[in-house]
Structure formats: C-alpha cells, structure tokens
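Please go through the sequence line and token line underneath and see whether the fold suits the sequence. See right below:
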Amino acid sequence: MSIEQRGRMPLDYHPVALPGSALRFRGPLATDRQPSVVCIGGSETFGRFINAPFPAQLNEACDGPVLNLGVMNAGLDVLMTDPAILGALDDAEAVVLQIISAHNMSNRFYTVHPRRNDRFLTASAILRTIYPQVDFTEFNFTRHMLTHLHDLSADRFEIIRNELEAAWIARMIRFLDQIVAPVHLLWLSNRAPDDDVGDMSMDPLFVTSRMLEHVARHAESLTIVTPDTVLENDELTGKFFGPKEEAAARLLPGPGLHDYATRELLKKL
C-alpha cells in the first residue's frame, strides 16, 4: 500500500488554550455556549492520528456543543486538577470519561509531571529500597521506567502494580463522585478488559475488568469498544501520521472504533 493510500501525513490538531489552563486542547472548540457534553480522557479522546475522533462526531450529532478536553498521554492527575477541565465539568449536562491507564499518576512509589503525566520525575525512598540497584535518573518516562523494573524482577514489580491498581480505583471513584453530571465511562482500546495485561505497550496499562467493575458502579454507564466489537483488524487505515510515528499509530484505536464509540454513546447521552 502506498504512502498516499495510507494517508501518512500528520494532522493539524488546531491547538486551543482555555482560560486558567496551561494545556493545549484539540480545536476548534465551541466555547461560546455552555457545553452539553464534555469528553475527557487521554490520547484516544484527543484523537491522535484520527481526523474525526468520537468527540468531534458527537459534536455533529448532539443538539448542544460537545467539548473535546482529551489530553495527550493523560493520567488522572491532570484530569482531576486542571482548572479548565474542572470548570467545564461543573457546567456539563453529561460527561464522557475515557478509561485511562493507571501508570501515569503520582503514587507512593513515584511522582509524575503535574501536566505531562507520562513524564517520570522522582522515585520515592520506598521504591529505591525495593530496587536498590536502579539509577532512576536514567528515566524520563513512566512506561520506560516501569518496563525496566518489570524486566529486573517480576516478583518485586507486583508490589508496584498492586499499588497502582489500588490507587487508580480509589482515585477514579473519588473523581466520579465529585462530578455532578452523569458520567458515561468509555473503554476505547485495542485490547479488551479481560485480555492479558502483560504487554506493557497496551493502554489502558494495568487496568483490568475487575477494576472496571469497581468504578462502573459510580457511573451512569460503561461502553466497551475494542477491535473485536467492530471486527477491525487494520492498524493503520484511516490514520494520519508522520514517517516516525507509525509504531505509535499502530497502538491507538482506528477510525472504525471511534465511529462505533460514537454510535454507542449516542444511545446513552
């Protein structure tokens, strides 16, 4: 298949700044009226490599404006603290919250950048005790650091993973309980919740079906969208990416999954 057929050209995401926030959201955003739906999440909600991600499709289909406040590589830290996101959630009639990974958030073992949650900052004394042979100054990203720790000792790594799972559940429940509008959870991923989570490249990292069950009780609905639900197998068709972005593009859901997510969400909003 030729480059032209694959559409290997990066998208212009029309980055937009909102008052009170240092983040850049995907534009254009209809901010002149109170939003009917606010979509929050990570790279999938932002729509990386996708021309028309599900928030843009919802905006076309819904009566009121739909805000896409997805943040690239987001963890719960930025979603729960950014002033623009919190302000939009207060005004929303409904919220779509994409299920995001458990590793991009500060916890008792390490801290992450408050806005760029995929950036590793520091290891705690506890983590240094568990892995005394590791020089943590070598790591800039959480996934790289965690992959290295897992490869060194799968047994010791279980201590970290258990902490991340427990912290993610507790933080998600607290976040959901703080949102006044009905929240519709969205699992939008190239893997199913019951799949083996041993692959450290697949998001939402470390999140399992058991964890979903805990948090779904605090939400209005839960929608599961995976390649199996739409019989989508092509990892690149319909994605727009630069010559060095193919590996990253393969990991994210394609336009077929975004289309299906839109149809399913419209039944619930």
